[in-house]
Design goal:
4-stranded antiparallel sheet; elongated; 9 helices; 229 residues; alpha/beta
Length: 229
Amino acid sequence: MKLLLVEDEEKMVGLLRQGLGEEGHEVDVCGNGRAALAQGAPEDYDVIILDWSLPDMEGVSVLRQWRESGAQTPVLMLTARGSTGEKVMGLRAGADDYLVKPFDFDELLARLEALHRRGEQQGGPVRLGSAVLDPRRRVLRRGAREEPLTAREFSLLSVLARQPGEPQVRARLMAQAWGLDFEGSPNVLEVYVGYLRTKLERLGAEDVSIRAVRGVGYMLAVAQERRDS
């Protein structure tokens, strides 16, 4: 999963980032509410972990602004305050789940996985010409054939699939599929584009391609006659 952690407590950030990373999840961190609001579209993440108590504003205020803007990304709120009234306030503001500190890490993982499944089920399959991207099962399929996608492959293809026929800037693709703080090889994008092209070829989806756009990045191209069928 690609997660956004909105938390200013350094010890908590360190523990969660390490633990979630060891479980194979990618974690971006914001230390205050304003940074979280400026981070970008919440839809770029699978689940958001949002602390109620932030140094500049309450997490519930951040949540309200996200929901008012139409963002539907699942949000798990963390708080040291566990009164029924506060839980109700958080849920009414748009929280999907609520966890009181201190909490068990395994319970956090279970809740995140449940929210992720719920979020995937809200989004149905996406048709890409003769192929279909299935978010729930994280596979690319054509007819009876399927190609499973890694989390990174799925993230990259999902970004490209949002605007087929429109060039996507490298920086945006990297930020949304790898995170803003990615420090690996800049060639990793080409590597994963290659993986996706191979899987499309194995499916026989000749009407779907990922094209390089000189000086820009990449574009998902779908042949018009197949796309409309």
